Amino acid sequence: xxxxxxxxxxxxxxxxxxxxxxxxxxxxxxxxxxxxxxxxxxxxxxxxxxxxxxxxxxxxxxxxxxxxxxxxxxxxxxxxxxxxxxxxxxxxxxxxxxxxxxxxxxxxxxxxxxxxxxxxxxxxxxxxxxxxxxxxxxxxxxxxxxxxxxxxxxxxxxxxxxxxxxxxxxxxxxxxxxxxxxxxxxxxxxxxxxxxxxxxxxxxxxxxxxxxxxxxxxxxxxxxxxxxxxxxxxxxxxxxxxxxxxx
Length: 247
Fold this sequence. Notes:
It is a single chain. By secondary structure, the protein is an alpha+beta fold. It is 21% helix and 41% strand. The protein has 2 domains: 7-117, Electron Transport, Fmn-binding Protein, Chain A (Pnp Oxidase, Chain A), CATH 2.30.110; 125-225, Beta Barrel (Thrombin, subunit H). It has an 8-stranded antiparallel β-sheet with strand order 8-11-12-15-14-13-9-10. A hairpin with a 7-residue loop joins strand 5 (84-96) and strand 6 (104-110). Residues 7-15 and 118-122 have low confidence and may be disordered.
């Protein structure tokens, strides 16, 4: 007599069907997506979800990649579903370069479920080493500085001037101007020093965080979204490396 399915097996099949249903709906609508190579999460590309067959997901690239993907290479793809950001992790099955339609396609083998990302992005996101995030801080006397960003939120950031030898002697309450750029997105904001620990400063964005709530400019939201994807990819990569070491 054949044994009945366990509760975990039934739940697993339900989860697979749910993932497939979500991706099929997004493919029907040619939903926009952003893909990142986990080994170099600072490089991301615009694409559209094209089709899904089993655990293979095809994305149509909207721009040329800097290099050809490697078969088996790990990628993260993010997209929106029901007004919420989602992410999946997958590996490269095939790269179809410059099809007759003059576009390229990337075929990925799904390796994870769909992860829901924080849509408000009001918390702080750590800036990963190698991120292409740039910041330019201008003080009241007009001097310009390029500190390292430790983390960023919609209401402020924590920066470090490190061992540059000298850094601006800002005090709590000092006002600065901040140019924040993560290509192609850029925004200029007013900042106010809220705390200081040696060469490290906690900066608040007074024009963004008001009594009425957070009113960040669209460019800041997009920068936060990219940083969150970089962080998710880096966390997944570190987890995979730890698992390999255990085996």
